[in-house]
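Following up on my earlier message about magnesium ion. Here are the inputs again, as you asked, copied directly from the submission form:
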Amino acid sequence: SNKKLLVLPGDGIGPEVMREVRRVVDWFDKRQAVRFDLEEDLVGGAAIDAHGVPLADATMEKAMNVDAVLLGAVGGPQWDSLDFNIKPERGLLRLRKEMELFANLRPALCFDALVDASTLKPEIVSGLDIMIVRELTGGVYFGEPRGIEELPSGERRGINTQVYTTSEIKRVAAVAFDLARKRDNRVCSVEKANVMESGVLWRDEVTKLHDAEFKDVELSHMYADNCSMQLVRAPKQFDVIVTDNLFGDMLSDTAAMLTGSLGMLPSASLGDIDETGRRKAMYEPVHGSAPDIAGEDKANPLATLLSFAMMLRYSFDLGEDADLIETAVKNVLNEGKRTGDIVAPGATMVSTTGMGDAVLSALDHL
Ligand code: NAI
Ligand code: MG
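Thanks, got it. Here's what our run produced:
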């Protein structure tokens, strides 16, 4: 049956990169192996201009009822002076909150043609393909009590609380184990059980879930400080890393720098499986709306395209189709075609549209 997609291009370069991705979606649609019912709507500044809010209720309703959401980027200087509650970013936050997207997937995939863009030596990152799964709706960013108090002594005290429940840990760990089965079948669970109670519980619950339901997946544990070191020293030792909100925030940014440009980094955020067997999911590039290059046909569409590939792989179990996209991207890069953000000596500069053309042509040749 047809897959229902909601496409939210957003602001700045969002609509520019999404236009190229829609051409690739059409390419897959034409092959008939998989059909998409695609609907496009507004989010962020574009929605503020049209409706006065960064995400209309009707759009939220659509997002709740499709198989997957594909988002470009939101924000821009023209909306910076608005109140926090109606800023473009609130549109994104509303989607994440109401869809309860608790697992944030950030792959670090190193294309050989871009190995020089890494901050590390080629032999350390060449062929790298790891996935960081960050818990996104719990932990110290949301735990109570929190606040800043005045003490009788006149000192002030800032408080945040790291809290995780068994169900919060198990659901994100289950996502990580599921993903591992579609990859290299290995999960490394990361916490600081040596100094944190929530870390002790984390390790315990991940281990219990593994032993009960995912015995076929290889599970290891690592302290977060060691993990940050290992990511830079020998990142290829990892397949899937699962960790909490705070450690995941930092480790995924570290991993991102292993592979170079923002214009190449996809992501996914997953929620629970509903009564119809569908897992709530939103796919988006890691980068923002890049107002500095918006409207100039310069943006790299590959991060958004690779986000669509993740959708095929993880929402629709179309791993071979996802591989087609990744191979096409690899071939285009090997041909030396580059947008401005990843340009290298001897490469051919292409526009956003030019990159779209190149990917479609590469797909035709596979
Ligand atoms: P940004 O990611 O938009 O841009 C950072 C730098 O990277 C810029 O120089 C930009 O030109 C470049 N860049 C980013 N994506 C690129 C691409 N696909 N191709 C080529 N170059 C690319 O981050 P920045 O400048 O901090 O934020 C700009 C706006 O985007 C702000 O309004 C911010 O709030 C918003 N933003 C939105 C996000 C989202 O929608 N998820 C995430 C991050 C920022
Ligand atoms: Mg961060």
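One observation from looking it over: The chain has a mean pLDDT of 95. Hope that helps, and feel free to reply on this thread.
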